[in-house]
């Protein structure tokens, strides 16, 4: 219920979003008509169509997205006719004459019928729903991400429909108020004809804005009343808070948080035969949820490995549960290679179906769960940091289980490269996804879903904005370069810049060159580039491209790929 309320409120706030602007002329075009016969059917058609198209786009694959693109073209044609008929009654009669025989009276009624047809209103709503592309704020982003992860379901469609219903509610209020204002203008000024013509101009401007991609490009970046902050507060208010780690004196008893769930959902095990809660009785167990391209996981991994080495002969069993974020992380060969290269020697369960993840009711990478010798979860920790406290928890559970002569002190892994501790800069740029399912702060115009498109990066970027340049195809979780010479630019803040990359489907290495503020990185190069900025994408993983030698100030990052086929997934910063 909380999620439904959140989705509805997110839709209501859409009226304040800049991406609603191209839709408003079509809504107000019927503001002087009876609401129940015109405004309400149009808004219902818009909400239902958006929910259907968004569901197909989120879970139905590229074909649905292509269908939506064709639908947008058809909708633009219909609405362009609508705008022209509003400009001139004679033009309306001339334009609609060929369609009268086919029974399509939408434009004719819009121009001359005071009451209007319910079905013509529904048709207008369907056209509007096909072209509406709301800004993907935190709430809509959560809904689309959940749909992509969980697959097609009644819940997915219900949530998207609830979001659309919220948007329709706020538009309905605007329409009712607008209708009264227009009626007053007609009575007092006799301005009905001029109002109708002005609406026609606005409709045509809306069509032009959508055709040029401004609804998903410029208007996603420029807003007089951005709702992102409000939406994020709503998300934070209703999202279940991380289970707190209660403050307790050293050596105080740890609470029981539940039993160790089943591990049977693992699709494969590495470094070990399949383990069960029963086979682990008598041992203290540390369960580490991770994925190999996650920078936070990589930075905590040296501590997990060090605890395994230090306490494996004193009753501790470490289990790494590899829960993939990207599709390539589901491939066992990729995970096995990462496990070898990262030096992971303890058991690793591949949780490709998120069965173990759901059993723990987990939401985070990394997440550590501490299980006692009786099979009870006694503590947890989410994210990086507090490693000494975690080691104290391990020692306390081992002592409870009767293990003696435990090694003293705390582990000091001394990790290097991408696994070194973060800078701690709270102002660093946020994690940024390149695929359209979760992309944000894209400054390169309209995103053509799954189609090859020639992108042009703007001359200037604001902080945390990024753009593509060259011939790219943007998919739900990545962008693929279709022609050599393409670039990605990002104005970032942080000591480190990482980018998850992979070669093309043929597996051929892709050469690249990095620049910072237009120059070779020099001493600021990352572990996967040299001082001249040169590097090669040879496998699917996280690449450290920048490590600033001094500070973590704002810089302009640019990566140029000298070969086609590269796939870019996500930026992270340290």
Number of domains: 3
Helix content, binned percent: 40-55%
Average pLDDT, rounded to a whole number, is 79
Oligomer: single chain
Residues in β-strands, percent: 15-25%
Radius of gyration: 28 Å
**Given the structure, what is the number of helices?**
16
Task: Briefly note the structural class of the backbone.
Answer: alpha+beta
Number of DSSP strands? 18
Unreliable runs, pLDDT <50, ≥5 residues?
58-68, 99-115, 215-232
Biggest sheet statistics = 11 strands, antiparallel
Distance between the termini: 36 Å
Task: Indicate the overall shape.
Answer: globular
Describe what this molecule looks like in 3D:
- The chain has helices spanning 2-12, 24-28, 35-59, 62-87, 89-100, 106-112, 118-131, 138-150, 154-189, 192-211, 218-221, 228-238, 295-311, 332-342, 355-359, 387-400, and strands spanning 258-259, 268-270, 284-290, 316-322, 348-350, 367-371, 376-382, 432-433, 452-455, 466-474, 479-481, 487-493, 496-502, 510-516, 534-537, 541-547, 554-561, 567-573.
- The protein is α+β, with helices and mostly antiparallel strands.
- The chain has 3 domains: 2-237, no CATH class; 258-419, Glutaredoxin (3-Layer(aba) Sandwich); 432-573, Jelly Rolls.
- Strands 8, 9, 10, 11, 12, 13, 14, 15, 16, 17 and 18 form an 11-stranded antiparallel sheet that branches.
- Helix 1 packs parallel to helix 9, helix 3 packs across helix 8 (138-150) and helix 6 (106-112) packs across helix 7 (118-131).
- The longest helix has 36 residues, at 154-189.
- The protein is globular and about 95 Å long.
- It starts with a helix and ends with a strand.
- Residues 58-68, 99-115 and 215-232 have low confidence and may be disordered.
